[in-house]
Amino acid sequence: MDALFTIFLLLIPVFLLLTRWRRSSKRLPPGSLGIPIIGQSIGLLRAMRANTADEWLQQRVREYGPISKLSLFGKPTVFIHGQAANKFVFNSDSSIITNQQTESLRMILGEKNIFELSGYDHKRVRDALLLFLKPESLKQYVGKMDGEIRKHLEMHWHGKQQITVLPLMKILTFNIICSLLFGIEQGTRRDKFLECFQQMIEGMWSVPLKLPFTRYNQSIKASIRVQNMIKELVQERRKELEQEGASPRKDLITCMLSIRNKDNEEILTEMEIVHNVMVSMVAGYDTTSGLLTFIMRFLANEPAIYAAVVQEQEEIVKSKPSGEFLTWEDLAKMKYTWKVALETLRMVPPVFGGFRKALKDIEYGGYLIPKGWQIFWASSMTHMDTSIFKEPSKFDPSRFEKQASVPPYCFVSFGGGPRICPGNEFARIETLVAVHHLVTKFNWKLLADNSYFRDPTPIPAQGLPVQISPKKPL
Questions:
Q1: DSSP 114
Q2: Of 26-30, 345-349, 430-434, where does mean pLDDT reach its minimum?
Q3: pLDDT in tens, 169-180
Q4: CA nearest neighbour of 169 among 353, 438, 423
Q5: What is the torsion angle, in degrees rounded to the nearest 10, for the CA atoms of residue 211, residue 214, residue 219 and residue 221?
Q6: CB of 225 within 8 A of CB of 240?
Q7: Alpha helices for 65-164 (secondary structure H)
Q8: In whole angstroms, what is the distance from residue 468 CA to residue 73 CA?
């Protein structure tokens, strides 16, 4: 009897734990976590590359409802969608949820990047980035960006009858990043940087299996090389600041190094600078190059919209002395062109979705999101919602005639709330200057169909080959 009583006492806590687990399980969202580590990652990646990711998520919604659990990139995950979900993701207190990249992104971009930080650390790094990226600071770089775009077009577009748009746009955006963010001009150093960078980004959205044959493993190795290159740049810029009195606004790295506390100590650690420079590279590379590529595709398919953009840009050309660089005031006149860019972002958002991490148990939609789980959301779920945007499959820049008419947290290409993308103004300037030169200097005709896939950013069929011809100067 003593033995039985002892067993009974030992079973009581086990019974209580099982009861508690069952209660918690009942409160978890419906769905399955799938195979350990892999989960539904391969299914989502396949759907993205087949451009069926929207349907893949819609099927989950039909099967499980507006909230469901799954496993993505090695982490248990809750998928949520809709305007309320976007508001929850972008506006929640940082003590409740925080940015959460996939394991592959975190390992490749570094744990000190802004998407991994929260609270005071996040604010400190964000403020440092904004010091360089805010409109007041970027005004002085419009002419330099104009010069980079002109050099690119002269080298890669003029004299050609056919080009492939996406790879050339990636070269353009990378060159602008190197020039404005790092102060690296054309040459072998920039070429080596580009080679390592391209290897690094190939495995950013991948299953985090560090095996010799995986894209993830190759990207990790490339990331180490890129970080070492950036560390060299940081050391050079620090020396220039200390010995030569370089301007704090020379480039992003110099700007971040120049921020000091009251004791004249650097606010940011070297690792924080390196990792956030890498984030800035990635954010400005695939996203803006994709946006420019799809603007060209939409303009080729929409003659009336193309004509309106051309008219707006040609009026600016006529108002300036020949050959003069664009100015901040010129960009302010490109209102319709920016509406075209916003509509392009709505229909083909560069970032399909994002992740957050629950810092505590959260009640959402009648279910439990456990502490430590990922929260996954997708931009297209509101961008293509017929209850929010009438005829969402129609390309219509007039949707953005009045920004206030778009419901909050429904258009989220740049995020929303207190964590809206700090580089959105940089992207706006780059896009407007590039489109200005494209529509005033070239005509183009598509040589491929309108299909595209995601890997993870959108990639048009065959990289969007086009036939181009020069326009006569105005």
A1: G
A2: 26-30
A3: 999 999 998 888
A4: 438
A5: 40
A6: no
A7: 83-91, 103-109, 119-133, 135-138, 142-156
A8: 41
**HEC states along 358-426?**
ECCCEEECCEEECCCCEEEEECHHHHCCCCCCCCCCCCCHHHHCCHHHCCCCCCCCCCCHHHCCCCHHH
Region of 111 on the Ramachandran plot (φ > 0 left; ψ -120 to 50 alpha; else beta): alpha
Tokens representing 423?
Answer: 């580089």
In whole angstroms, give the CA distance from residue 78 to residue 228.
36
Q: Is 356 helix (H, G, I), strand (E, B) or coil?
A: strand
Residues 60, 441: Cα–Cα separation, whole Å:
46
Cis previous bond, 456, omega within 30: yes
Apex 81 CA angle, 79 and 82, nearest 5: 170
By the 8 A CB rule, do 356 and 115 touch? no
How far the first Cα of the chain sits from its last, in Å, is 102
Check: CB of residue 277 under 8 Å from CB of residue 253.
yes
Provide CB contacts within 8 A for 350, sequence distance 6+. 286, 287, 288, 290, 291, 413, 457, 458
**Angle CA(419)–CA(421)–CA(422) in degrees, nearest 5?**
100
In eight-state DSSP terms, residue 36 is: T
Give the other-Cβ count within 10 Å of 181's Cβ.
21
Q: Which tokens go with 421?
A: 């993308």
Q: Which two tokens stand for residue 22?
A: 């069952």
Task: With cut-offs at 50, 70 and 90, classify the pLDDT of residue 423.
Answer: confident
CB 468 within 8 Å of CB 161: yes
Q: Is the dihedral of CA 278, 283, 289, 292 positive or negative?
A: negative
pLDDT digits (tens, 9 = 90+) for 28-59: 999 999 887 788 888 988 888 888 888 999 99
